[in-house]
Design a protein that fits this description.
Rossmann fold, binds 6-O-phosphono-beta-D-fructofuranose, alpha/beta, seven-stranded mixed sheet, about 325 residues, 2 domains
């Protein structure tokens, strides 16, 4: 066990931004590892907004019992605009001070880390981040909490859509979450055997769509799944489907938007295990005098990545995987 950092007696932990399955497992791991290091733990409800409003709850080991298998976040979450202002941050600082919180673990996406960074530039309370978003789009880590569960949710849903698509000989445009990122659409597309994958990172993918319709669907395929990331440049599944229907009136086209069901559900075993590793690593990092870093996983090993890099850089799309998909798809 790491020698305890002298200044830290009490840590705060909160979840922020879009919820993701596995966040509860991370809060549990943070709480229990902090208690193992003889630290007090305070849960901050409703993200940065709860921090501003002083919505705090003391967390004992028993308070995090029976939560790791639950989806959502029992601390709740929020996207706070007030925290972006100097006044909001000043209020949050006063609240943390009044609770004698010396260090904070934030579980969320890069927007949440941007908040932590801004705060750390003005105030002396160290923050360490844990990547939590179903988008899996964060720089410096192979994995973000919730991605694995969301991926499996999408695959299960699309398997069902495929049954009806093939029965009717239809083309389905299935839209999955990812406002700025196609990681979920790419992996789900490969896992479901989607005919075409359209993601914001790739400009040329509408050509693949046209190729599938004219060469694939019309000559040999009887149905098709077009996996569309929410943030695709063409404007999402409905717009694309409309365009395709106009250009090919003979096709039987349908749209399915999977929506927020992708964020719910019991976390997968992988999400629980990795959230646990990251939760423990975050507390260790704070005790090791780290601040303004994210704990991530690279090749299954814990890494520390400066938050400033996480918020500035994007995670690259796996081009090899995309090419594999295209090779198989064109057969
Ligand atoms: O950041 C995760 C995410 O699920 C995105 O994929 C999606 O675009 C967004 O959150 C939706 O956010 P909200 O629940 O606020 O509509």
């Amino acid at each position: 066990m790491t020698e305890k950092r002298k200044g830290i007696k009490r840590i705060g932990v909160f979840t922020s931004g879009g919820d993701a399955p596995g966040m509860n497992a991370a809060v549990r791991a943070v709480t229990r590892s902090a208690i193992a290091h003889k630290l007090d733990v305070v849960g901050i409800r409703r993200g940065y907004q709860g921090m501003i409003e002083g919505d705090f709850v003391k967390l004992r080991s028993s308070d995090v019992s029976g939560i790791m298998q639950l989806g959502g976040t029992f601390l709740q979450t929020a996207r706070s605009t007030e925290f972006r202002s100097d006044e909001g941050m000043a209020k949050a600082y006063q609240q943390l001070k009044s609770q004698e919180i010396d260090a904070v673990v934030v579980i969320g996406g890069d927007g949440s880390f941007r908040g932590a960074l801004d705060f750390s530039q003005q105030y002396d309370i160290p923050f360490v981040g844990i990547p939590g978003t179903i988008d899996n789009d964060m720089y410096g880590t192979d994995y973000t909490i919730g991605f694995d569960t969301a991926l499996n949710t999408v695959v299960e849903a699309v398997d069902k859509i495929k049954d009806t698509a093939s029965s009717h000989g239809r083309i389905f445009f299935v839209e999955v979450m990812g406002r700025e990122a196609g990681q979920l659409a790419l992996k789900a597309g490969v896992a479901c055997g989607a005919e075409v994958i359209l993601i914001p990172e790739i400009q040329s993918d509408e050509i693949e769509l046209e190729k599938f319709i004219t060469k694939g669907y019309k000559s040999k395929k009887r149905s098709g799944i077009i996996m569309v990331a929410e943030g695709d440049k063409a404007g999402g599944a409905f717009k694309l489907a409309e365009k395709v229907q106009k250009e090919h009136p003979d096709l039987d086209v349908r749209v399915s938007i999977l929506g927020h069901m992708q964020r719910g559900g019991n976390p997968s075993a992988i999400d629980r295990v990795k959230a646990t590793q990251l939760g423990v690593a975050a507390v260790e990092a704070l005790l090791d005098d780290q601040k303004s870093i994210m704990v991530g996983l690279k090749d299954d090993k814990i890494v520390h990545v400066p938050m400033v890099k996480v918020v500035k850089m994007n995670r690259d799309i796996d081009n090899d995987l995309l090419n594999i998909h295209r090779t198989i798809n064109t057969l």
